[in-house]
Amino acid sequence: MSEASDVLIFLGVLALYYVIFFYQNTVSRLISSLRPGVGGFGSGSGAAAGGARITTAATTKPVLPSEVDVLVVGSGNAGLSAALAAAQAGARRVLVLDKCPESWAGGNSYFTAGAYRFVHGGLDDVRPLVGNLDGVIEEKIDLPAYTHEDFEDDLRRVCGGRSDPRLVKALVDESAAAVRWLARLGVRFHLSFNRQAYVVHGKIKFWGGLCLRAAEGGKSLIRDLQEAARRHAVHVAYSTAFLGLERDWTTGELHVSVDADGVRRTIAAKAVVLAAGGFEANPRLRSQYLGPGWDMALVRGTPYNTGEVLETAMRCLDAAPAGNWSGCHSVAWDARADPLAGDRDASNELTKSGYPLGLMLNLEGVRFVDEGADLRNYTYARFGRAILAQPGHAAFQVWDAQMSTWLRNEEYRPERVHRVEADTLEELGDKLCAGGGTGAATLRDKNAFLRTIREYNQAAHLHRAENPALKWDPSIKDGLSTQSKAMQLDLPKSNWAMPLEKPPFLAVRVTCGITFTFGGLKVDPATAQLLRQSNGHPNRGIYCVGEMMGGLFYQNYPGGSGLTAGTVFGRRAGQAAAAAIKADFK
What superkingdom heads the lineage (predicted)? Predict the structure, then answer.
């Protein structure tokens, strides 16, 4: 064989090698591009079988598609509920955006106690949902039914009759179905023994219309929803902020502008669900809408709920504002907490909700709320506002040894809060005047502090003397008050009024922690479709859920109804979006 032939054979083999190499890499890239959640979208069924992963900005730049069926803005409970409902209803390409990094995923939902308020028939009805009854003697559990009428009455009473009745009906009617849907998705639920039950006369008594929580609060709720999103091929991009959208009147598509980790992109979507939260982390908007002093409130949850999407929707989408724009959910909060954001480790444990068991006094040594006005579930969301209005935006919660044993360990253990303890009330007053060893806001008037507690103790004793049949019971409004024929305080304590006399005495300092704002956008209750300001008509293809939705809560809310509302209306929005896509984009 000639030397020329050898050269030709060598060149042929080399060419074949490069062809094979190119073919293998091309096929590999093609296969990768078809994997759900990695640079593209697969079918819902394929993703469920293969296990879609969420592309995150924590490890890579967001890999964004140019076109989707449903785009959801916000990665909290409401947003993920909408995304999952859309995927289940047939939307093949569902994308969730959140401007936060992955380390802050879940919005405010992550920071909740994970409580769900829903209609049920008692323990037999709830038992199939929960996973923590092993070893519990069920005969000792006193879990009354919570009816449609109970839920509606609580909303009407607590919100002053201002809630949109159509939103109330939708929330109440679908509350049980929404919770069971979450359970089918893999959200783990427990009976809330630690937060919603007291052991009274040998019975484990649930109270306040609440009994169910996510297994580990908001943390496990978000983890479980994220896992469900992976199974349903829902793609999530973090560090990706919504900037606005325009409608293509020729195709009907919505062109969504986003900032993806500093790069401006446009994504075509057939439907958009806004679930980006309120403006509670924006001091300017808090002062503008809630009033003077609200820039001083501490933020309980995510620092990323700053209201830009709300403002953009009203400015550019003709969105109609709705609800209580001067109102919010705010609580008694650890005064030492970070003012700008919640603690992802401590989470809801920084709430200080034991005030019904004792007293709250401001820095001048004066009480300013009726600590026993109602069960904690119906007062805690408005008492933050009362604390903010006090001198120094702070107050002290005070108990004696008899009552402090009933405090929830997760909120009041020494590792979680600075406890000021003393053997006498005089010594406690001295320590609080000295800042309790923290160098923080101090008690300004010890004499007023002591006088307030002594007058309260006297009033509580006189009431008990006149009403010997009444028994202290923290699971009901027990009627033990400070108001008797012999003596009445200007500001009563209407229930659970036990004298503070048994040492040691305990005090903790609290301030106002804001959770979420009540003002939002008007929606069609049936579909959560955004309504126009100009004519009241639905804004086709655009939906609004979660804390962005207005009209449901006014000045206060029944505990546990926020997460339920997020799931109910998120689910409705996702289902409606998928159905509209099938009808409009054949």
Answer: Eukaryota
